[in-house]
Amino acid sequence: MRTIHPSSGLANVRYEIRGDLARRAHEMERLGYEIVPLNIGNPGLFGFRTPETMRLAIIENLKASEAYSHQKGIFPAREAVVMQQQSRGVRGVSADEVFMGNGVSELIDLVLRALLSTDDEVLVPTPDYPLWTAAVNLNRGKAVHYPCRPENGFEPDAQDIEALITTRTRAIVVINPNNPTGAVYTRKTLEAIARLAEKHHLVVFSDEIYDQILYDNAEFIPMATLVHGTLCATLAGLSKVYRACGYRVGWVSFSGELEPAREYLSALDKLSSLRLCSNVPGQWAVQTALGGYQSIRELTSPGGRLFQSRQAIIEGVAKSRYLQVHAPRGAIYAFIGIKDGVIEDFDDQRFAMDLLEHKHVLLAPGNSFNAPYKTHFRITNLPRQEVLAEVFRRMEELLDSYATGSQLESRAAPALKVVQK
């Protein structure tokens, strides 16, 4: 039979977070090994629950969820997004400029598909959340990566960004709070990017899915409050702040210069119509989520579970002979690096595979996030602090073997109860 080849459009698409390492982890689990899954920020896997009021809102509106909704989403959900944006100081947004989607992931694809023609360029941070790079490439564009350097706390520099702008540049992506690094950008950095976008008439795509997950008094600045002279798209959803990944509910709201973007917004409306609508039951949780008690603050404050797990990561790195990290100020990840000169020819992919095979811990190597170096890896701080302490013990054992050149041995790792209520 003739071989069935995949589309050539997938040649430059990577999503290693669920790639070969994750597939190998599933194989090992089927063989009876217990794997600690630190590769994905999936709160429900670690015992976090969606607030009960959101679950009740879905149940109470199930009868109203059996028909297709408007392609942009149900009005109460879109209006709740408008009210949140207005409360943050964003002006000029109405429900007509809000689109609901099956998570932010679907919307990333739609907003880029509506914008890009062949070889159009989009400025994407490196390291990035790899769906942004993949979606640009899948939609005929070219992802141009601007650096967020470790030595600068993973914050970008506007001068670096401007040097990459060409006549083909259409948009810039900002991920704040950042995945994978946990950086929370300063007002100065965001204002510089906003002015740059306005100067070059670039669309700003601001990925703010972690907007309320902050530590140590870090301040989140909504990008839409700073962008006025060009189009700004703010993307957020229920998955992380509200621990509702499986609901698959996200939204994008548009602000700034709306009139010159009417044809673009019409194209996005057409694409939304083609998929009929997004998941209706989950949309009924949006108004309750955004207007209700924000329980995430308990989790991120001192003594809260996310705060304590983040602290366990900081302490685990501090005790290590080999590791270093910029303490994450937001989101649910840490982007951990190897100290200079402690291990010769360190390779993040090899480390990730060895850690999985020999220590039964699954993480995401830094090159998964289009980083130009192979010295970092990302873990999530969703497990409890005692689980993370054991993870760092296993990491240190593996790094010791690298440093001494000793032979790695496969053996059963101590059992860890990962899912905890």
Mind sketching the topology for me?
Blueprint: H1 20-30, E1 36-37, H2 52-60, H3 75-87, E2 98-101, H4 103-113, E3 121-126, H5 130-138, E4 142-147, H6 158-162, E5 169-175, H7 187-199, E6 203-207, E7 231-237, E8 250-256, H8 262-274, H9 280-291, H10 296-300, H11 305-319, E9 323-325, E10 333-338, H12 348-359, E11 361-362, E12 364-365, E13 376-380, H13 385-404
Helix pairs in contact: 1-12, 2-9, 3-9, 4-5, 11-13
Report the major sheet: 7 strands, mixed
**Helix vs. strand class:** alpha/beta
Number of separate helices: 13
Average pLDDT level: 93
Determine the CATH superfamily of the largest domain: Type I PLP-dependent aspartate aminotransferase-like (Major domain)
The ordered H/E elements are HEHHEHEHEHEHEEEHHHHEEHEEEH
- Strand-residue proportion: 5-15%
Low-confidence stretches: 417-421
Briefly note the CATH topology name of the largest domain.
Answer: Aspartate Aminotransferase, domain 2
Shape: globular
End-to-end separation in angstroms reads: 51 Å
CATH architecture identity of the largest domain: 3-Layer(aba) Sandwich
Spatial order of strands in the largest sheet: 2-8-7-6-5-3-4
Q: How large is the radius of gyration?
A: 22 Å
Number of domains: 2
Briefly, what CATH class of the largest domain? Alpha Beta
How would you characterize the overall build of this protein?
By secondary structure, the chain is an alpha/beta fold. It folds into two domains: 8-49 and 298-404, Alpha-Beta Complex (Aspartate Aminotransferase, domain 1), CATH 3.90.1150.10; 52-291, 3-Layer(aba) Sandwich (Aspartate Aminotransferase, domain 2). The chain contains 13 helices and 13 strands. It has helices at 20-30, 52-60, 75-87, 103-113, 130-138, 158-162, 187-199, 262-274, 280-291, 296-300, 305-319, 348-359, 385-404, and strands spanning 36-37, 98-101, 121-126, 142-147, 169-175, 203-207, 231-237, 250-256, 323-325, 333-338, 361-362, 364-365, 376-380. The chain has a seven-stranded mixed sheet with strand order 2-8-7-6-5-3-4. A hairpin with a 7-residue loop joins strand 9 and strand 10 (333-338). Helix 2 crosses helix 9 and helix 3 runs parallel beside helix 9 (280-291). The N and C termini lie far apart (51 Å). Mean pLDDT is 93; it is low at 417-421.
